[in-house]
């Protein structure tokens, strides 16, 4: 606490990301990173961009990257916004579309950054209960609100809501913005990007951090009606003209254009997830069906916190949330087959 | 205008950066970029970082970069904050230290992003008049306020306020934060970083965009009392956990460590600035003494807007601000000697 802080600063409860320990080498299954390296074409594009032109500002409109994403999704660049990770896009979207006037809605169990954004901007919120299996019921979003944000698949539960479920939320909230956070969509879920033509209130947010193995590059994207994109640009251009550096722009373009590598690595992650899910169930774990690059698991006997600690001792990091309703669960990112074998071996020892 | 925008979004007047035209190749003297490429060691560090580890999140605390900056300035890392360009740091500093309660102060002629930040966060402001020669008088900052921001050297005037002048502003504003924006400090001015030990209300903001030729990499830094740094971190961690990507971190560390290259390129920019200033005066221009990497010039007869257009036609871009008090002036970035010769030749034709 400092006398120089604003009241806002003093009131905040900042987000705490998954730990990035430096004390030893871990099998890192705690922050949903992709176990495979980025596309070699993306790395090559970055190396090529690392030249004299770095003395020059990047394109503040990120025109080339927006066009690449537009071509990928078959829309125009006016439907595309990019940012320094999807977290930054969400940080722009909250003040762009939500306000203190009416509470926004998001699931009770979800990405824990949402309430942090809300507090930063003084936006009230209501957490809408998921059912006992963490399922989102679209009907529960038909209450008065100033906006909705739903991740799909949800984190950390990995639950996927079918497109018709999202449609129902969009239909009952036509006069306010519904953000669908698709950070994990590329691992088997069906994106609602095609719905942006039909629903001017829909903003879809995605990231290159997971399915394109570029967590270290910080690039996210949003797709929606051009009016929503303009709203994001108004906030962004009141905050920072140049949010994406020249290297991130070059790498992101090459990564999105390399569809073959993307399909191949995602296929591998999905195969490992299915194999891991089956093996965990054999070990007695309950595993929620996942369409993400992580699984959310609980053991009928062993406490999650103990499992977390025992795994960490064995050099395996997973994520444990000491929070109501989910403190019996662990979130485990999908690594390579070899890494998951190490996890399964350790769990066999600990809980077998 | 959209019905989906918040009132805030609709009310904003976003910042407009200098143009980045793509229609032809210009001699670009309009956005204060450095004419020399970044340190070869920085480029090499970036290329080395462009590998498999990009699949992993960067260090959210930017520990290694903060330590490098701390070592450079002889402080501890608790005195250092880094961001995605100094613009992002300012965008965090406004809500961290200023509020709607009391107006903040900044010069009437200054970086035009300051009022944009203030509007974004609902912070009232008073612009303090500079004198007829755009000089800042520290005594004029001894009025009730909720914070102060002063760039030194100022932009776009290039005027430098001596350290004792900054001290006077710090002394008369001891119970609120004074931000000194030193984006252009390395071209001959004296930094007030050493004063952070004495003044817990001082935050000094710098950037790698100008003197380290890395506008395309987006890295800025702030130095101040650990309480101020913690305030910035509270806002940042409520906004985006990972604002600097792995490539920016690697490149910035190498650039700051390469003191020799830094000294050499800055020496060249300063020499060219002095030569250009003398030549422009010979051509009849009034040139404000500059300690930045640009000059602010006016011609007694030729209108600035006409000069701007005539230069653009000849393939030379400078910056013209159609604003009260400065609409007779042009801001001209310092390029290479060759580029400045081209500028001088063109001006001889146009205004000679």
From TrEMBL, chains A, B:
Residues 25-347 form the Aminotransferase class I/classII large domain. The keyword Transferase applies. Pathway: Amino-acid biosynthesis; L-histidine biosynthesis; L-histidine from 5-phospho-alpha-D-ribose 1-diphosphate: step 7/9. It is an enzyme of class 2 (transferase). Gene3D superfamilies: Aspartate Aminotransferase, domain 1, Type I PLP-dependent aspartate aminotransferase-like (Major domain). Signal peptide: none annotated. Pfam families: Aminotran_1_2. It catalyses: L-histidinol phosphate + 2-oxoglutarate = 3-(imidazol-4-yl)-2-oxopropyl phosphate + L-glutamate. Its EC number is 2.6.1.9. PROSITE patterns: AA_TRANSFER_CLASS_2. Keywords: Amino-acid biosynthesis, Aminotransferase, Histidine biosynthesis, Pyridoxal phosphate, Transferase. InterPro entries: Aminotrans_II_pyridoxalP_BS, Aminotransferase_I/II_large, HisP_aminotrans, HistidinolP_aminotransfase, PyrdxlP-dep_Trfase, PyrdxlP-dep_Trfase_major, PyrdxlP-dep_Trfase_small. The modification N6-(pyridoxal phosphate)lysine is found at residue 210. It comes from the Bacteria. Belongs to the class-II pyridoxal-phosphate-dependent aminotransferase family. Histidinol-phosphate aminotransferase subfamily. Homodimer. HAMAP family: HisC_aminotrans_2. This is Histidinol-phosphate aminotransferase. It comes from Cohnella cellulosilytica. The lineage of its organism: Bacteria, Bacillati, Bacillota, Bacilli, Bacillales.
